[in-house]
Write a structure and sequence with these properties.
Helix content: over 70%
Strand content: under 5%
Oligomer: single chain
Distance between the termini: 89 Å
Length: 143
C-alpha cells in the first residue's frame, strides 16, 4: 500500500560521535583483542607442555571449575537449613493461630446466618400469610 517515504538519517553530533568511537576502541575492541591474544598464547603454551605440566594445569583448572559450584552448593545448603528451621518454628506456632482464626470464622458464619435469617423473615411471613389466606379461601369455597 502507500507507505511513507523513509526519513533520511539524522545528522550526528560530531563531538559525541568521535567520543563514542574512542570509547568503543578502548572499552570494547582493545579488551577483546587482548583477550584473544591471551587465549592464543595459552593455547600455544599448552601444546608445548610436557605431560606432567599438562596434568598439573589440568588439576588447577578443575579446582577453579569446582569452586563456583561448591560456593553455590554451600549457599543453597545454608538457605535450605534456614528454610527447614523456619518451617519447624511455623509448625510449632501456626496451629494456635489457625485455631483462633477457625473460631473467629465460625462466629462470623453464625452472625452471617443470623443476619440472613432476619433479612428473609419478612418475605417468608408474607408468603406464609398469603398461603394461609389461599388455603382458607379454598376451604371456604368448598363448603
Amino acid at each position: 500500500m502507500n507507505q511513507p517515504a523513509p526519513l533520511p538519517p539524522k545528522e550526528r553530533n560530531p563531538i559525541t560521535h568521535a567520543r563514542h568511537r574512542k570509547e568503543v576502541l578502548w572499552q570494547i575492541a582493545l579488551p577483546v583483542a587482548i583477550g584473544v591474544v591471551i587465549c592464543l598464547a595459552l593455547a600455544f603454551l599448552t601444546t608445548q607442555m610436557t605431560n606432567d605440566q599438562a596434568s598439573t594445569w589440568a588439576d588447577i583448572s578443575v579446582i577453579w571449575l569446582i569452586i563456583p559450584a561448591l560456593a553455590a552448593s554451600m549457599i543453597l545448603a545454608i538457605l535450605m537449613t534456614g528454610a527447614i528451621y523456619a518451617v519447624t518454628k511455623l509448625i510449632q506456632v501456626l496451629p494456635f493461630f489457625f485455631y483462633q482464626a477457625h473460631r473467629w470464622l465460625l462466629a462470623f458464619g453464625v452472625q452471617v446466618n443470623r443476619i440472613g435469617n432476619k433479612a428473609v423473615e419478612p418475605v417468608l411471613r408474607a408468603h406464609s400469610f398469603s398461603a394461609s389466606v389461599r388455603k382458607l379461601g379454598g376451604q371456604v369455597k368448598r363448603k
